[in-house]
């Protein structure tokens, strides 16, 4: 799923806050000032003051010359950050990932949240209306990237919601300032007559880098989605990690087991609460001699069962060398997935491969003997016997086609057909006798031939088609033989490929 | 008065207790009675009479002798039929082997969905035995099949104790059972091929036919049968195949 971000721009963050504190200031021209080199410089102006031509970074004296009734308040430098933090906390009701975008904005990661409000438009409307009702003059925009959302929220005129993948069209008509560029870059762009992002968006990267620096390319990439950009959430999602410092260095296997149990219980408790399960976990032991020992386990299905995970680690404990002792253990779940909860057994009967017991067993086996030796097969659409099966990649994978039963297939198939000597009477007839491993078999009954053509587009080494015969000897033992290529008298090559039940 | 009564009733009570205990032992060993059934039943027709309570013992370890490749093929077919019956309620099956030649698509013919079988291919017998024991410990599994060259009495005893707890059915295919040593398995079978027969002398190869020998069965009667796997059913073909086994048993005794 593609990410969706929302950018909120508080147009008059600080003055709105003053108005909320003192409702009498509504519609009054007032400014916030801070002393710089002995002069009072305006840091923000109320909408009424702005309407009369007062801008930020003007000196208060100049502003008072324009509007004589202008009121001035002292600006506190940390106020903006504090306000945004509080507003960000409030926004967590809309999405868990909220980041502050200084000096006057918020960035929300709204991926997968909007449907709860009935879609993106109602979501945006709800959030903006609520903020406006509180008293903040805000603009919002939603897009696939933070860059585009930021640009559209500040400069967009057409629609606040930019559909999936339409970033380029959205920012084409916007001024370069929408890319969050530095002043001197903006001035240079202005000087060269590049008033819109569209006029330089498609220029070669090397040209842009030489004239405007790497930053322009990064910002452009972030807006269009080529470059990744992360937000720093107000409430960071802590990694799934537990630590256990030891008073005395641990040197025995029993000690390690106890440490492991404590760590697993803490970690699993947290995973259970969040409905997650771990797929891989790493146990690290920091030794007294400044070395680190570690061991890793993997599960075939996300799990938060401490007993099961302990059993997996138990197999690995002998590989941990404590040497002089381990003083700190950390257990990290490096891969965490949602746990698929099973229905009660009453409704589904025997869950077969989905049973947790089965995946736990496979984890234990994989931990000791390696994952390569555990196999499951699915049918593949090939007639060539060796290619008619393929290995399944996971326990959940279902066969894409049916298992065919229309043609006889032996229960035992030799991985490589073995050459045999035969006596075959006439072309396209099954042999009368064959000798395999020194034993002569006299054929009584036979079926065939079933011709299987070579898949020349897959095997590069060449070879011939095979004519398979099912034969039964005097003792009732059944074999799968084939002749490679066409019949050519004594030159025909015969092979045994399998045994029927 | 009370004591006296109890003493007078003693013989009848004793017999009850003994038969009850016998039933308990059978149940523990994997033999079941008709009432306590949750596991799907394997109906082998007349073959079932060989087992105690006339029910195929699930929750036990069965042993199959197959020294030759051809025997192994026939045994695989028969075991697949048994495992297929156990898997009918949707359970999974684990197939452990050292040097496997089994071709999964063929299992479909014997009523097993090949994608519900998990194959564990190992090089060393020690690993295979460990995997077998672990798999038999797992109660969610319908059947565990192991192809291993040899198994000792101690090892088989371990497995039997495990299945008495977990009620999983195990099948061991001993692929190099030259010296058929004693094991703690509940039954010992030998399956060999028989010439197939088609009606009215039609050409071609018919349905697979096996000579099924039940060499040993604890608390039951060994026997031998001719069986045919036809159209999804394993049927016993009437004929006096039983004599051979009895002769063999007598030879061993003699």
Short description:
The complex is a heterodimer of chains A (501) and B (254). Chain A is an alpha+beta fold and 501 residues long.
Describe the structure.
Chain A: This is Protein ImuB. Chain A: Residues 8-153 form the UmuC domain. Chain A: Keywords: DNA damage. The complex is a heterodimer of chains A (501) and B (254). Chain A has helices at residues 13-21, 47-51, 60-66, 79-91, 120-134, 146-155, 167-172, 183-191, 198-201, 205-212, 214-224, 253-273, 306-314, 345-348, 356-369; strands at 5-10, 30-36, 39-45, 71-74, 97-101, 105-109, 138-143, 241-250, 276-287, 292-303, 326-338, 374-375, 377-379, 389-391, 412-423, 433-436, 439-452, 466-473, 478-484, 493-499. Chain A is an alpha+beta fold and 501 residues long. In chain A, strands 15-16-17-18-19-20 form a six-stranded antiparallel β-barrel. In chain A, strands 5-6-1-7 form a four-stranded antiparallel β-sheet, with helices on both faces. In chain A, a hairpin with a 2-residue loop joins strand 2 (30-36) and strand 3. In chain A, 34% of the residues are buried. Mean pLDDT of chain A is 85; it is low at 343-349. With 254 residues, chain B is an alpha/beta fold. Chain B has one domain: Rossmann fold, CATH 3.40.50. Chain B has helices spanning 2-8, 10-28, 69-86, 125-137, 153-166, 242-253, and strands at residues 61-65, 92-98, 117-122, 141-148, 169-174, 187-194, 209-217, 223-230, 233-237. The longest helix of chain B has 19 residues, at 10-28. Chains A and B meet through helix 15, strand 12, strand 13, strand 15 and strand 17 of A and helix 3, strand 3, helix 4 and strand 6 of B. Strand 12 of chain A pairs antiparallel with strand 3 (117-122) of chain B.
């Amino acid at each position: 799923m593609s990410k969706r971000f929302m950018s909120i721009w508080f147009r008059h963050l600080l003055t709105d806050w003053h108005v909320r504190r003192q409702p009498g200031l509504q519609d009054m021209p007032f400014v916030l000032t801070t002393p710089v080199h002995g002069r009072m410089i305006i840091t923000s102006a109320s909408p009424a003051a702005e309407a009369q031509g007062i801008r930020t970074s003007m000196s208060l004296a100049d502003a008072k010359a324009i509007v004589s009734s202008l009121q001035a308040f002292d600006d506190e430098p940390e106020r903006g950050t504090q306000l945004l933090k509080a507003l960000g906390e409030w926004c967590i009701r809309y999405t868990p990932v909220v980041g502050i975008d200084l000096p006057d904005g918020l960035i929300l990661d709204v991926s997968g949240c909007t449907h709860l409000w009935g879609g993106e438009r109602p979501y945006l409307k709800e959030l903006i209306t609520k903020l406006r009702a509180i008293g903040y003059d805000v603009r919002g925009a939603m897009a696939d990237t933070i860059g585009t959302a930021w640009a559209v929220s500040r400069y967009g005129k057409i629609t606040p919601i930019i559909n999936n993948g339409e970033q380029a069209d959205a920012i084409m008509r916007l001024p370069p300032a929408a890319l969050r560029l530095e002043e001197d870059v903006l001035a240079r762009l202005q000087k060269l007559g590049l008033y819109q992002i569209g006029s330089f968006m498609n220029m070669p990267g090397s040209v842009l880098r030489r004239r405007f620096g790497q930053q322009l390319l990064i910002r452009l990439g972030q807006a269009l989605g080529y470059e990744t950009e992360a937000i720093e959430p107000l409430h960071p999602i802590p990694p799934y990690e537990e630590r256990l410092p030891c008073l005395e260095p641990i040197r025995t296997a029993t000690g390690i087991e106890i440490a492991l149990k404590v760590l697993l219980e803490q970690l699993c408790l947290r995973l259970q609460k969040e409905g997650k399960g771990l797929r891989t976990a790493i146990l690290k032991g920091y030794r007294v001699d400044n070395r680190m020992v570690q061991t890793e386990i993997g599960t075939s299905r996300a799990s938060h069962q401490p007993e099961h995970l302990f059993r997996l680690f138990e197999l690995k404990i002998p590989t941990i060398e404590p040497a002089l002792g381990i003083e700190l253990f950390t257990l990290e779940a490096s891969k965490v997935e949602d746990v698929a909860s099973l229905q009660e057994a009453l409704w589904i009967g025997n869950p077969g491969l989905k049973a947790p017991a089965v995946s736990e067993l496979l984890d234990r086996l994989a931990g000791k003997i390696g994952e390569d030796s555990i196999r499951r097969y699915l049918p593949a659409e090939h007639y060539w016997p060796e290619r008619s099966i393929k290995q399944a990649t996971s326990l959940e994978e279902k066969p894409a086609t049916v298992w065919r039963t229309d043609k006889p297939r032996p229960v035992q198939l030799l991985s490589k057909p073995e050459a045999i000597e035969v006596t075959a009477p006439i072309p396209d007839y099954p042999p009368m006798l064959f000798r395999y491993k020194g034993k002569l078999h006299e054929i009584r009954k036979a079926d065939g031939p079933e011709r299987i053509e070579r898949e020349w587009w897959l095997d590069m080494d060449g070879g011939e088609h095979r004519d398979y015969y099912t034969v039964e000897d005097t003792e009732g033992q059944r074999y799968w033989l084939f002749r490679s290529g066409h019949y050519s008298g004594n030159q025909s090559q015969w092979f045994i490929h399998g045994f029927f039940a | 008065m009370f004591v006296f009564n109890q003493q007078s009733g003693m013989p009848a009570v004793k017999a009850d207790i003994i038969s009850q205990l016998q039933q308990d032992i059978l149940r523990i060993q994997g033999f079941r009675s008709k009432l306590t059934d949750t596991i799907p039943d394997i109906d082998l027709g007349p073959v079932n009479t060989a087992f105690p309570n006339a029910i195929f013992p699930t929750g036990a370890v069965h042993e199959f002798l197959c020294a030759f490749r051809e025997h192994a093929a026939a045994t695989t077919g028969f075991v697949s039929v048994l495992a297929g019956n156990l898997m009918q309620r949707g359970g999974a099956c684990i197939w452990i082997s050292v040097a496997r030649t089994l071709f999964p698509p063929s299992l479909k013919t014997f009523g097993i969905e090949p994608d519900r079988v998990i194959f564990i291919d190992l090089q060393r017998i020690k690993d295979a035995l460990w995997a077998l024991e672990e798999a038999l410990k797992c109660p969610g599994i319908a059947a565990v099949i192991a192809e291993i060259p040899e198994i000792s009495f101690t090892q088989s005893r371990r497995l039997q104790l495990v299945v008495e707890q977990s009620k999983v059915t195990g099948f061991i295919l001993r692929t190099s059972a030259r010296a058929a040593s004693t094991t703690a398995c509940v039954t010992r079978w030998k399956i060999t091929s028989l010439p197939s027969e088609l009606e009215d002398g039609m050409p071609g190869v018919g349905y697979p036919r096996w000579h099924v020998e039940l060499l040993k069965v604890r608390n039951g009667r060994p026997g031998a049968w001719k069986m045919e796997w036809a159209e999804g059913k394993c049927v016993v073909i009437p004929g006096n195949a039983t004599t051979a086994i009895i002769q063999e048993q007598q030879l061993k005794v003699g």
